[in-house]
Batch of 4 targets.
Target 1
Amino acid sequence: MSQFLWQNRDDREYVYPFNPRPECLAMIQRPPAVALDIGCGSGGVGHALRQRFAQCELWGCELDPSAAQLARQHFDHVVEQDVESVDFAALGLKRPFDLVCLFDVLEHLVNPWQLLHGLQRIVAADAQVLVSLPNVSNIALLYDALHGHWRYRSWGLLDFTHLRFFSDFDARKMFYQTGYRVLDHRMNLLGEGKAIFQRHGDECFPSALSIGDMTVKVESQEHLRRLCTDQNLYLLTPHHGHLDSEEERALASADYPDVYAFGGDR
């Protein structure tokens, strides 16, 4: 047995939980006709979609062969290939996808912006795109970081295989810059953040929230919920360059607020 998380990573068998992600699928606004689940694992989402939308044509994309084999029980087609290189038409796709699921996938990619931008070649003009992303501005994670700890784990906010990290703001910038608008946003509280919210959610705001030796000014219950969120969940659709407000235009721009962290853009 390996002592360290980083040892023998390529030799370890990854166990894919059968997770139907009901909190994400609850955001679907209309029945899909052709759906694609990218990183479909062992098929939990496909199973749930089949139960809800029996006539929907289901496609999955999964690189792990053992997981893909399990997923074939729940999808009409499972492709063991990088989605960016798949010729779906050659595999029998007759019309663009009107539902795409990206559940805890983008943070594992070197360039998730490129994937999102490239998806527009295979999605319908009014497609529903569901995304789940870990929240790097989670207060428990920030507490650990302020105390000098950024501990990678086998799963969770600091999964060893995560390459990219997003707050809600940075996720929205990515979506708008790559051609999507946010139709719905929900927050999933799972770990210590959920316990913190349950303890302090009914307090009067603004308030000073103390966690150990760290104190944070919290402006509202909504602010506290955002700080306690483990996963940000989004429903997106292509915006085709039509931006309806100053806020949307700002999100789609290359402009960012000033930050304190050392670094530059050129």
Target 2
Amino acid sequence: MTDLSGGVEGTRGSPLSRPSQIGRITPAQARMARAAIGRNQGEVARATGCAISTVHLMEHTADEVSRKNAGVIRRHYEEMGVQFWADAYFHIVAVPK
């Protein structure tokens, strides 16, 4: 069970440390973030000034995207309210309402 306010509960009920913010997001997180803000790849590309192929690569093989472009795309998602968290077990995308 994931609880951003208090941490992550293990299988035996022992709380684990709270997830921390991360630097580079995973392809799955990039797809989840885009879905959460309700945009398609073209809209994200236009909003960030990146090519559609860059947005596509970020969502499938993030290591092939330059740190600069990855940062621009991530900042766009964060400006739209998306938060990225990770711990040893989970990579989380949260969108506050």
Target 3
Amino acid sequence: MELKVVEFEPEFAGKMNFYLELLDEQEKQQDDNPSIGIILCPLKDNIEVEYALRSSNKPIGVSEYKLTHKLPDKFKGKVPTSKELKQMLTKAIHNAGLSDNINDSTSNKNEL
């Protein structure tokens, strides 16, 4: 998945196709489903997207996103709060045994 901060450009599709080829060649196992590319942009022109993806042999989707300062009511209770996200990330890092690496890199930045 790629999150862009500019309007969709056709070269994004080519880059995503490259990433998917690399992923499938280097990481994908025989029993894995096909890799899917998702490009999120604040704006897109559907005709431009259609032509950019027409020759791609990989499943790639392009969608728009909208930033808001307040979580819409329909999503309250359905997505984690920032505090809950931080707790989930901290737990995942700890469970993966990476907490020492994170602490080391943080302390090194403070020493610079």
Target 4
Amino acid sequence: MLLEFLDKVAKEPANKMTAESVAMVMAPNLFLVSSGSRNRPQAVDRELQLAKATSKITLLLIANRSLLWMVNKIYVVHLVLQWSSVTCFKK
């Protein structure tokens, strides 16, 4: 549901944020990343890299939300047949 909401926010005409902007804002709330001390320049660079990566992941999740967690119809039919063969579910 969260991904659907974020997709709607990104597509809302009154909203001036793009999907990339929504992903950038939401990524730190979805992924906890830390490179250690903020006093070292390498740590700051690493945190920037992690922020970019999590933002891209969030954007991919938003963009592909309709495909995520989809189950192929063949698997559903197989599960129904398997469950219907269990004796406790037979009439």
